[in-house]
Specification:
The chain is of the alpha/beta class. It has two domains: 225 residues, NAD(P)-binding Rossmann-like Domain (Rossmann fold, 3-Layer(aba) Sandwich); 211 residues, NAD(P)-binding Rossmann-like Domain (Rossmann fold, 3-Layer(aba) Sandwich), CATH 3.40.50. The chain contains 16 helices and 15 strands. The strands form two sheets. The chain has an eight-stranded mixed β-sheet with strand order 3-2-1-4-5-6-7-8, with helices on both faces. Helix 9 packs across helix 11, helix 9 runs parallel beside helix 12 and helix 12 crosses helix 13. The chain starts with 18 loop residues before the first helix and ends in an 18-residue tail after the last strand. InterPro entries: 6-PGluconate_DH-like_C_sf, NAD(P)-bd_dom_sf, UDP-Glc/GDP-Man, UDP-Glc/GDP-Man_DH_C, UDP-Glc/GDP-Man_DH_C_sf, UDP-Glc/GDP-Man_DH_dimer, UDP-Glc/GDP-Man_DH_N, UDP_ManNAc/GlcNAc_DH. GO terms for molecular function: NAD binding; oxidoreductase activity, acting on the CH-CH group of donors, NAD or NADP as acceptor; oxidoreductase activity, acting on the CH-OH group of donors, NAD or NADP as acceptor. Belongs to the UDP-glucose/GDP-mannose dehydrogenase family.
Length: 496
């Protein structure tokens, strides 16, 4: 699927030039580059995807669907076994499609790197967490790169897709490859190729998928950028090339931090509305969104989740400190968002206090433990922090209901974990709990049933917006709804 290289509608040009004009094909290409491009063009290149999670497996499926032999590598044996049986485990993918690709031998998976010597194009899609001190942990990237480097040969392309900080590709991945390549007489940009192209996965989004979401790529050399763009255009219509990996790495952080700071803004205003009383932040946002220019709606909530947005501000702040620079605005935004589970936990305690029951006897039902609606992804879900805070307050019992998540474990700092009891969201179950907390607004939740069955509700997502009955509204404590009872939520812990 070769595109004409044009910029998607609404995108700006670079220095007044279209992407085609600013990123011309290098004047000459090495034999290794020409050979790889020929393999890609003929559909003969073997694709390797390291990390078969929410980013890696959809990417592997796209290449396999385009007719490329695709090998996935993941250290999770159960995940690999499932995939090799044709058993799909990602909600956004079609079960029959995955099964068909496996049965046709276009898609396979392994827990080792033995096949690396036969792979022509590598995509590194591994986790990039932070340490306990919130510094970047690039261990997964380093390990994956080292395994590739052991099998490095002419004509191979490595594209890092894991979200990370600027200079990871050139400062970490490149030296590992060169350490193995240089003694063999392999030259980066001539014999093998390296680039960064950040993932843009939005779990649960049926409109924008791996195939139709534009992507950015930055090569370590002009040839690396060109080869990478051609490889990506086999499955993605719009591929936008930038001058180097650092630009692409910073661009990804900008995407996510843009959301982080705007969500922090509305979270802070939501708390202010609760303090003032009589002002619904949800109505304020709805009114502001009538402006056809200069405004984009963001909504308050119980805290950020998923992999990228809670993590990326810390990546950038860590990098900034290396240059004696403080990202005050970005760091403050992260703190505001990280304080929201504390805000919600205090609201729950306040809702219990309004009833004739002791906290240690209270039954709390958490509705939704996924980090966003209509997905099964629980990574960094605010539900975990909320549950742990309630446990610290010796709340009687905490259960959860989530149509997308079968089991949920809360992890503690000492490395231990505890399974939270799952229940079905039925009228009887809702009625037997003292407070019901909407953490995730899944479409599958029966809003009318919840409103009529619950004794008290803390709604952090405005999921019950359509409930207008005054008697039922009395039971609902809406985060940012201007509910004067929410003022008990202050103050927020400084170390949130």
């Amino acid at each position: 699927m070769h595109s004409n290289g044009s910029i998607p509608s609404g995108e700006s040009s670079v220095n007044g030039l279209s992407n085609d004009e600013s990123r011309r094909k290098p004047e000459s290409l090495s034999p290794a580059a020409l050979n790889l491009l020929g393999q890609i063009d003929n559909g003969e290149a073997t694709i390797g995807v390291i990390g078969l999670g929410y980013v890696g497996l959809p990417l592997a499926v796209e290449y396999a669907s385009a007719g490329f032999k695709t090998v996935g590598i993941d250290l999770d044996e159960s995940r690999v076994d499932r995939l090799n049986r044709g058993d799909n485990y990602i909600d956004d993918l079609d079960d029959d499609q995955v099964r068909g690709l496996v049965e046709s031998d276009l898609l396979s998976a392994s827990t080792n790197f033995d096949a690396c010597g036969d792979i022509d194009v590598f995509f590194i899609c591994v986790p990039t967490p932070v340490t306990a001190s919130k510094d970047p942990d690039t261990g997964y990237i380093e390990s994956a790169t080292a395994s590739i480097a052991e099998h490095l040969r002419p004509g191979q392309l490595v594209i890092l897709k894991s979200t990370t900080y600027p200079d990871t590709t050139e400062g970490i991945v490149k030296p590992i490859l060169e350490e193995q390549g240089d003694p063999r007489g392999l030259t980066l940009g001539s014999d093998y190729f390296l680039a960064f192209s950040p993932e843009r996965i939005d779990p649960g989004n049926e409109e924008w998928t791996t195939a139709n979401t534009p992507v950015v790529v930055g090569g370590t050399t002009p040839t690396c950028g060109h080869v990478s763009q051609i490889a990506l255009e086999e499955i993605i219509e719009h591929v936008y090339s930038v001058s180097n990996p650092k630009v692409a790495e910073m661009e990804k952080l900008l995407e996510n931090i843009f959301r982080s700071v705007n969500i922090a803004l509305v979270n802070e205003l939501a708390r202010l509305c609760d303090r003032i009383g009589g002002i619904s932040m949800w109505e304020v946002i709805q009114a502001a969104a009538t402006k056809p220019f200069g405004f984009m709606p963001f909504y308050p909530g119980p805290g950020l989740g998923g992999h990228c947005i809670p993590i990326d501000p810390h990546y950038l702040s860590w990098l900034a400190r290396k240059y004696d620079f403080e990202t005050s605005f970005i760091t403050l935004s992260a703190r505001i968002n990280e304080s929201m589970p504390f805000y919600v936990a205090e609201a729950i305690i306040g809702a219990v206090a309004d009833q004739p029951i002791r906290l240690r006897d209270a039954n709390i039902l958490i509705l939704g433990v996924a980090f966003k609606g209509n997905v099964d992804d629980t990574r960094h879900s605010p539900a975990e922090t909320i549950i742990k805070l309630l446990e610290e307050k010796n709340v009687g019992s905490i259960r959860f209901a989530d149509p997308h998540v079968d089991e949920y474990h809360v992890r503690y700092r000492d490395g231990s974990s505890r399974a939270i009891e799952k229940v079905e969201c039925t009228p009887e179950t809702v009625a037997e709990h003292d407070v019901v907390v909407v953490v995730t607004d899944h479409d599958a939740f029966d809003v009318e049933m919840i409103a009529t069955s619950a004794r008290s509700i803390v709604d952090t997502r405005n999921m019950l917006a359509d409930i207008t009955d005054p008697d039922l509204r009395e039971r609902i404590h809406l985060l940012g709804g201007g509910d004067s009872t929410m003022t008990a939520l202050e103050p927020i812990a400084d170390d949130a």
